[in-house]
Design goal:
It is built from 14 helices and 39 strands. By secondary structure, the protein is of the alpha+beta class. It has six domains: 90 residues, no CATH class; 85 residues, no CATH class; 83 residues, Ribbon (Laminin); 30 residues, no CATH class; 165 residues; 69 residues, no CATH class. It has a seven-stranded antiparallel sheet with strand order 29-28-27-38-37-36-35, covered by helices on one side. Helix 2 packs across helix 3, helix 3 packs antiparallel against helix 4 and helix 11 packs across helix 13.
Amino acid sequence: MAIKNYNEILINWARNIKIYKRSSSYIQMDTDCGLGLLIKITEVFQAYITVGVRFLGSTNGLCGNFNGDSTDDFKSSMKIIEQRPSFFVNSWKVTANCGPACDEESDPCSLSQVNEIFAESHCSALLEETSIFGRCHEFLDPTEFYKASNFLFLFSKLFSYFVSHEYIRHCLDSYASACAKRGIILAGWRNVMDGCGISCSFNQVFSYDSRVCHRTCLSLSNPEFECTSMDPPVDGCNCPDNTYQDTSGQCVGAAECPCFLANIPVAHANQQITLNGGTCVCQNGNLKCIGQDPQERCYPPKIYFNCENAQVGEYGAACAPTCQMLAAESQCRGFTVLRFQKLLFQSSQLTTKCVPGCICPDGLVLDEEKGCVHPDDCSCEYGGHSYSQGEVIVRNCMTCFCTRGKWNCQGSGLCPSTCMVHGEGHVTTFDGKQYVFDGNCEYILVQDACSGIFSQPSFKIVAEYVYCSQSKTVCTKAIKVYYEDFLIKMTDATYKVIPESAVGKFTVIHNQMYLTFQFGDPDTLQLIVTWNLKMNTYIQIIGLSKFSVCGLCGNANGNIKDELITQTHYSACTLMSFVNSWKDDPMCEDVTEVVYPCAKNPYRKSWAEKRCKIIPSDVFRPCHKLLRWFPYYDKCNRDACGCELVGDCECLCDAVAAFAKACLDVGVCIDWRTPDFCRKFLLSV
């Protein structure tokens, strides 16, 4: 299938592939192998690619490798993990004559204050609780969509006024679509936002939940072709209720619909044809047939089993051998067909009676995902998903192979993970999710014993946050490590052990800039906490607690999508509800919003930008090819704008130090401190 432009779509049909229009705005492609593609052909072009779990760990390209580990998604075509998007993208070019991709590391807001105000006025509706988008805030945080809409709008303003409005519609539509996937249909948003409306041609009607299912003549002949219950809602134009789109694109009644066979029109309305030895008439989009042999209705390689000819111990479709039966080692009572005597065992028997129907032929069993297969090719099930023979999944650092419908798992359960807490409420979880919050309280960063059946963790790390600006941004005042029966409290550039007799139960490594505490047994679970004596803390877990981990640092399972698990063990829909659930003191006030200090303190913005320019400057140039500097620069600006109660330089220097530490982690040591800028200090503990 090739999309050349919005009005020209070239479709190449292949076996086991379904391609159809979901609405006037979307084209859907489904395949039997688990690959799906949803393409938006109006406004800004968008493509949503989905793959089934059978592809786990076997994909390559710009969409990543789908192995459950978010940290290696930038693996290039040369099998090395790139740090910068441009190098990663360039490695996957299909044709050599394309120009190289480049990283957009500039802030378009800094190019024009007028454009910045204009962008905020158009995009701010995403954040307003009273707007139509506010209905979804409880289920989906709009912050990242707001940032993206501002950036894309300002960037597109460099081209034309009309292009910029296309991107505004795109960003608002992206949030509305994401809400629809969560069951929240924001009906009416296109009407209240200027320039976002869609007009329908002919006699079609617009809907925010436009489903092609039962809207075409094809769906009358083959309801399953265009009807998939798992399809996410999309908007666009389709035929009204009780009308169906025919092959010419018109909306007609069912009585005027042609009939389809194998998705090809074979008869006009009320036309009579001969098919498989029987006579069929096309009525209401369906072929009504008489005189056909029911065996013809079985799709090869399945065969029809007639109970009238059943022998003793044969039960037809009621007990046809399946991969699940092989895995469970179960069989029907009296089932003694020779070909399965070595496959099915007598450990579990089912009592049943014969049922006619389509079954797999001799030597094959039914795989729910693939149809009739040899027993050696049976799929394996995990978490409600199907994996093909030979596929490999990694769970808890165990490598599991699918073999004859069963999992064969090997390996140990030791996985290193790092969580970074720095500056004014910035957190990077063990699995790489980055967020910021402003809560004046003590919060649990990480602990084990996360299951409800365990009440006492073997370790717990708590961060104490206090307000450090008039705009109510927060800074880290103290880090507390509770390990077994003792406490280490780190604050004011020193630490204290309670009780003092526990000093020998952990290891401390001193250097000029950091303190590193090591706890536990390297052969099982080891906890390493590195602290820069100010606001930056790095928590590393080598191995896993047998009770798993949880907290603001996430669950360290390699999946960035399930980080927002609350203390009460449910997945939070918003960042704020997740953060509030991990308060160590329930009497603290809840966090309700993310503060933007540069907006509240515009007089500090120019100073912050000037001082943070060291990050994109030549000082850090050796690191720029390995890391994206802009996220750190953005965090630096935020921290420098909102730190007047603690000290301007302290927040600024810790923000720059976070980038320097990231550079060091990828092998680049930057000597960035000078007597005039964040001068070096000597460790006093």
